[in-house]
Design a protein that fits this description.
Ribosomal protein S3 C-terminal domain; 2 domains
Length: 231
């Protein structure tokens, strides 16, 4: 039987890097770091929904947690005069302190007293980023547009981008308010999931409607990555 593998995890160490970068000296410290990272990601997913965030990367040393937010609308996150980013940084510090941390021999990491450094990076060509495209589909569905029209318009916008060579969008749930859930899919171009050097961007999103939740999956193929291009 075939197995469905996450396109990002499938390419780790080949053309992808880890989104959480740190080292732990003990299993207890490892558990603490994973708990804090998970809490930060859950908080930012709710807090920045609609800000077109493409990824959240976390780096840390013994005293500082660096959170890198990549978004196509940095103005929404930074706010007027940087007020939004300062407020967001304080909220992340609260999340870090409130995360469940078991006592270890890690000092600052064990007590959760770590400074948070927030960096915001702008992403070019948002139509080639799968998290942005997935939210565009969710936004259209939440505005009560017909799902076929949303899928067709979104695919045309994505394929108009020069970097994109293929796109596939799948939605599942009570489409159109039907009694039984079903799956609909649309595809343009090539999406080679088994080719490790293929730059496949994948994202999941949910559209919240009165009659239930509709799940959205987006695959975007942006060409192959070779060692010569990296150099």
């Amino acid at each position: 039987m075939t197995h469905t593998v996450h396109p990002y995890a499938h390419r780790l160490g080949v053309i992808r890097d880890w989104k959480s970068r740190w080292f732990a000296k003990s299993p207890a410290e490892y558990r603490t770091n994973v708990t804090i990272d998970s809490a930060i990601r859950r908080f930012l997913k709710k807090r920045l929904r609609g800000s077109y965030v493409t990824s959240v990367e976390i780096e840390r040393n013994q005293k500082t947690i660096r959170v890198l937010i990549k978004t196509s609308r940095p103005g929404l996150v930074i706010g007027r005069g940087g007020e939004g980013s300062q407020k967001l940084g304080k909220e992340i510090e609260k999340v870090v302190r409130s995360a469940k941390i078991k006592p270890t021999q890690g000092g600052a990491a064990a007590s959760g007293k770590m400074a948070v450094r927030l960096d915001i990076e702008e992403v070019r060509s948002p139509e080639s980023q799968s998290p942005v495209v997935a939210y565009m589909v969710a936004e259209g569905l939440e505005k009560r547009q017909t799902f076929r029209r949303v899928l067709k318009q979104t695919v045309e916008k994505v394929m108009a981008n020069r970097d994109v060579q293929g796109v596939r969008i799948a939605i599942a749930g009570r489409l159109g308010g039907a009694e039984m859930s079903r799956t609909e899919e649309i595809k343009r171009g090539r999406v080679p999931l088994q080719t490790l050097r293929a730059d496949i961007d994948f994202a999941r999103e949910e559209a919240y409607l009165p009659y239930g939740v509709i799940g959205i999956k987006v695959w975007i193929y942006r060409g192959d990555i070779f060692a010569d291009k990296k150099k």
